Amino acid sequence: MQAERAKSDTVEFDVRTDEMLINMGPQHPSTHGVLRVVLRTDGEVVSEVTPHIGYLHRSAEKIAEKLTVRQYLPFTDRLDYLAGMNMNLGWALTVEKLLGQRVSEKTRRLRVIIAELNRIASHLVAAGCFGLDLGSFTPFMWTFREREKIVDLFEEICGARLTYSYLLPGGVTAGPPDGWFGRCEAFLDQFEPVIDELHAVLTNNAIFIKRTAGIGVLPPEMAIDYGCTGPVLRASGVDWDLRRDGEPIYTEMYDGYTWQVIAPINGRYPDDHPYPPVPPEAVVGDSWHRFFVRMLEVVQSMYLIRQGIEKYSADDGELDKPIEIRKKLPKGEAYLETEAPKGQMGFMIVGDGSAVPWRVRIRSSSFCNISPLPELCRGVLIADMPAILASLDIVLGEIDR
Amino acid sequence: MNARNIYDLLLQPFRPWLLGHDFEAIDPWIEVSGEGLPEIARFLRDQDELAFDVLHCVTAVDYFEPDEKKAAKVEWQPHLELIYHLSSTKRRHRLVLKVKLPRWKDDRPGELPEVPSVSGVWSTADWHEREVFDLMGVRFLGHPDPRRILCPEDWEGHPLRKDYRMPTEYHGIQAR
Amino acid sequence: MAELLISISTPDWLAHIIAALVQCALLLAIALCSAAVGIWLERKVSARIQDRLGPTRVGGRFGWLQPPADGLKLICKEDIIPAAADHILFRIAPYISFCAVFCVFLALPFANGWVAVELNAGAFFLLAVAGLEIFGVILGGYASGSKWSLYGAMREAAQVVSYEIPLGLCVVVIILLTGTMNLVAIGNQQAGWFFNWHIFHDPFTFVTFWVYVTCAVASSNRAPFDLPEAESELVAGFLTEYSGFRWVFFFMGEYASMFVVSALGALLFLGGWNGPVPIASLLGLTPEHGAIGGWINTILGPIISMLGLTLDPAAWIGNLLGMCNFIAKAFLGMTFMIWLRWTLPRLRIDQVITTCLKYCVPIVSAMLAGVMLWSFFLPGGLFAALTQPASFPRSAWERTDSTLRVDGPQDVGEMQEEAGTRNVTALRSHAEHGNEGNIQEESR
Amino acid sequence: MACGPCQVAYNRVFGLFGGERSGDAEGSGRDEAPMRNWFRNVYQAVVTVSLALWVCLRYWFRTYNPRRKTFTEHYEYPELPLEIFPRFRGFHRFNLTTCIACERCARDCPAGCISIGKRRVEGKKGFQVSSYTIDYGKCMFCAICTENCPADCIYMGSSYDLSCYSREGCIVDFARLPVEVAWGQATLNPTAVARSKVVLEPVHGGPNS
After folding, report:
1. Do residues C158 and C230 lie in contact, with contact meaning Cβ atoms separated by under 8 Å?
2. Cβ atoms within 10 A of the Cβ of B16, count?
């Protein structure tokens, strides 16, 4: 693998001019936060890319060594702040794994609904920002409008619009209010046509296809090698989703649901929904596929939410109460990855018998997803940089922790 | 394949490098010695029945109690522990590898402990090892780009170590 | 104007200067107003497309006064010149850009004969001067001393060589059809009902129009061709280092150039000042004096002549209507460009060049050939052929004769040689009618 | 086509349009049939751009529908306060009279933003709270402080106007606030708090003013 990489190190040029070092970020509009990328360019052609991260480093792991697991939960919201619920869920499940605790069926149903709603919200931001990075502002506003409705639902259920702190280890702070599921379904019903509109303005748009198809191709071997996960990995044609392939404590949440892992297997997507066609220019693993996988996952999440609401309403069990704030952790370490919208979000907790973890490790999905950026961006044009970066869908809060 | 089977498979070629294991832990782990790490890693990745193609995470845990009163009670000797979380997309199994290191090389404070890099085996390790170096102070031999990653280049110390003290000033910026 | 001043015993030289200044002020007002209205339109239309309201506070419910308020804010801003910038070039670049756009207004006719400088090669002049705008952009980008700005400038340079060719060819198609480069003449040839417009002349001109739209969008640096200032790639491209008043000039230049290309499109393809329905000529507001026109002339004529002006009030009012029509069309074109901008993602620079050179140029070349053949066999246009198929092509000839009027001071003999035979009769009728009610006359 | 040159010419001309669709789903059909591709590209560009324009146009005109309006028109924030949900976690509400100064909230707070000053009262049980300070520069509105309060004296309020002009302004001493600001609407009944949170008049005179 090293040898292959060495070979691709050289970029072919027709005409060589003076090289230029150029700083993209940390205040660049399309680096999704405070990522800094140093480009070595020859004209418009990028010959070398060096990402510099750490501008948003907030010592999240060090903070965790001072707080109990329940107290640390609000900090997980700040990792991938676009999918706070999924971060909460990952932390909660890891704590439960360490404690050897299982939550009730009903709580698991609620967790699926909430986590999938937030997945939709996160993918909407990804889709909107993708459009924005390609210069199309309007879909960004549309996706944020839809996200706003999800955020309203979250505000109703947990009282916050961004940092939810809702799915706690052991349970939830409070059950959904009356009529919440009705509003949730109403949202899904009105949201469905919006997906088609997004397909019309982005996915199927000739310019969008030209800008993204065949750009930043990430072959499956390389994706696995770099530890890319989530939609980035699946867009490369790897059929891997922790909701199905993960550890039992996580996958049991999704038992009994009908849904599909979205990945282009042999260039084909699952056909349980009238998706727009794949353009012939698109290569599996390119930016277009990464975008498309997210758009299709939104549909799958909608299926999951609908089924979850049905199951939740049919279930007459009880919602669990969260753990005590100073609950003692057993000795030992537990590592669990969950399928967050951006990829596999892993938490490791090392317990030493007290309430405060000895060490917490956060394995962030975007951190791994962005690491092949130098490979993906070698030899592209400057204009492709935002497209590739947007297709990786990074959140700097998670990368820098 | 569970950790016990994997251990049995590793036993044959790498017996001297396997230093310990715990199959009953929440995440079963195998402890290997640092010098044999790259070869074991390569074996784990390339062996067809193992096929550990994904390295999820490289972590270090600092076992050191700065508080002397508490330090008397702890049951371990001060050391650093590197933890590698592996899994396989083909075989769908998981494994945790551990490498124990001294906190300082040759017990000389300030000399970072060294361990061979596995970034040649899994590219994930590239950035993760940089992060471990940055925050925990472990030198990875043979790493292609051994720089800090989250902290600035000129940062002093390794913040995730238990005895780390936050500087009061950084380039004239008051830090506390 | 000058004549009027001379008639009230102003010295010759002063009269001409005053007349020129007044015209310049009028045109500047049009340029600035078009920019202001364009900005307002942009904000409102984009807001509506994006499911929001846009400005609602400044100047009442619809935020009419938002552009002046923005301008005021920008003028109050600190004028920053980067230390690494080339100061002189950095300073003059916005003015070059704006002046180039403003020069276009000099040759842009707003109605039959209402033009500051009527040029025989008006279309040519327009294209050439509009192309100068990019000098400001390139200078500004170069002088900023910023790499992003430099990229913006270089992209603009690459873009301009690609879109100018199809843009020029699109105009050539119309010149071929009309046989004249005089914009007033081109506008007047499309008089009458909307099917006389060049866009409906034949399928080839229809396609040419859309190619023109593409190139026009590119020439005013608007999305999806806004590469020089691609905010998601180049921060703000050549505008990165500009702030305050200089930025305003670039900005107004952009909107004014949007207005210019829209107006040129309206003039070449959409009938210019001739509405879809020939209201002016139905009401008799033409030099021929129909019923209402004659009536107006009997009332206003004596007053006008008392003031010592040689003016045909009815035709003047007709022209005013035409001017409103023309400006409305230009704004319609701007609205379309705004609509397009807020819909599409941006192209990449190589794709811009590909689009212009590998797609637009072949298409418009084919259309040029098509129009050539079409105007040879069916010179009257598609609708004439469809409405009177039996007596075709003869009836089409007669139709041209009766509906087309060409005004403006042209050398008939010279034009006869250049123009297709179709226009000869039209030009003859022009020679007969003279050009009464022409502001041109007044201004000399 | 018998003769070779004819075949070549035929291929050269019609090969441009591509006899069959080149490549599988993964391959690029770019170079095989340039002419065919050219027309396909033009066709696709025209169709998809028109479609996108149409979708935008529909939005454009849909917003004029008086029943639908634009999305933002439903939120008239600066003029009218936002309608927020009962569980909203805004500025705290604190009841000084029932607080027993047990410091549980201060200990549970992950950010360490609560500090309580207390003094013994002669001849009485318990403490008197002399200051109850929350540093809103640190607070992250996680509501952990409200979870374990034995006296139910702290709640998350509904005020979302959180800005202040200085770091000192972020530090709010609830003991010094008038009771109607600290506890709001003069309601001291904790069960009524949830309902009273839905405020419909502008929020003003918050803890900072």
Report:
1. no
2. 8
Dist CA D130 CA D122 (whole Å): 14
In Å, how far are A46, A139, A328, B94 from B24, measured between CA atoms? 51, 51, 21, 14
Shortest distance, CA D188 to any CA of chain A (angstroms)? 21
**B26 to chain A: which residues are within 8 Å by CB?**
97-98, 100, 332-334
* B157: closest CA of chain A, how far (Å): 14
Tell me what pLDDT residue A326 has.
Answer: 85
> Cα B134–B135–B136 angle (5° rounding)?
105
pLDDT in tens, C224-237: 888 888 878 888 88
For CA atoms C94, C100, C101, C103, give the dihedral sign: positive
Q: Decide: residue A291, CB within 10 A, 0-12 exposed, 13-18 middle, 19+ buried.
A: buried
| Residue in A with minimal Cα distance to B125 | A226
Residue C365 three-state SS: helix
Least reliable range by pLDDT among B124-138, C152-166, D156-170: D156-170
All partners of chain B with 3 or more CB pairs under 8 angstroms: A
Report the DSSP beta bridge partners of residue C52: none
User: Which among C361, C392, C368 has a CA at the least distance from the CA of C378?
Assistant: C392
Higher pLDDT, C430 or C222: C222
Chains C and D touch (3+ CB pairs under 8 A): yes
Q: Which two tokens stand for residue A258?
A: 């009908």
Q: What CA–CA distance (Å, rounded) separates A382 from A21?
A: 12
- The reply to whether residue A165 touches residue D143, judged by beta carbons under 8 angstroms, is yes
Residue in chain A lying closest to D26 (CA)? A283
Whether chain B has a CB inside 8 Å of the CB on A36: the answer is no
Q: Which residue of B has its CA nearest to A343?
A: B56
C234 contacts in chain A (CB < 8 Å)? 382
Please tell me the predicted confidence (pLDDT) of residue C289: 59
Place of tokens 């207390």: D118
Tell me the helix, strand and coil percentages in chain A, rounded to 5. 50, 15, 40
Q: Where are the domains of chain C?
A: 1-69, 77-377, 383-404+413-438
Structure tokens at B39: 């070869």
Sheet holding B18-22, edge to edge: B18-22, B29-32, B94-101, B79-87, B54-63
- Take residue A6 and report the two structure tokens written for it: 């060495």
How far, in Å, CA of C299 to CA of B27, rounded? 101
Q: Which residues of B touch A359 (CB under 8 A)?
A: 61-62, 160
Nearest Cα neighbor of D96 from D151, D29, D170 is: D151
Instruction: For residue C354, give the DSSP letter.
Output: I
For chain D, positions 36-55, list CB contacts with chain A under 8 A: 41, 44-45, 47-49, 51-52, 54-55
Six token digits for residue C162: 């690609």
Give the ranges where chain D is alpha helix by DSSP (H). Answer: 4-14, 34-62, 104-108, 144-147, 179-182, 193-196
Question: Out of C148, C155, C233, whose CB is closest to A30?
Answer: C233
What dihedral do alpha carbons D155, D158, D162, D164 form, nearest 10°? -80
Long-range own/partner contacts, residues B87-90 (CB < 8 A, 24 or more apart): B87/B52, B87/B54, B87/B56, B88/B50, B88/B51, B88/B52, B88/B53, B88/B54, B89/A224, B89/A238, B89/A240, B89/B53, B89/B54, B90/B51, B90/B53
Cα–Cα distances in angstroms (integers) from residue C379 to residues A184, C267, C375, C395, in the given order? 63, 20, 4, 11
Q: Is the pTM of this model over 0.90?
A: no
pLDDT band at C317 (very low <50, low <70, confident <90, very high): confident
Tokens at D101, concatenated: 């100064």
State in Å, rounded, how far the first CA of chain C is from the last one.
7
Interface B:C, ≥3 CB–CB pairs < 8 Å? no
ipTM of the complex: 0.80
B94-98, C17-21, C118-122, C276-280 — most confident range? B94-98
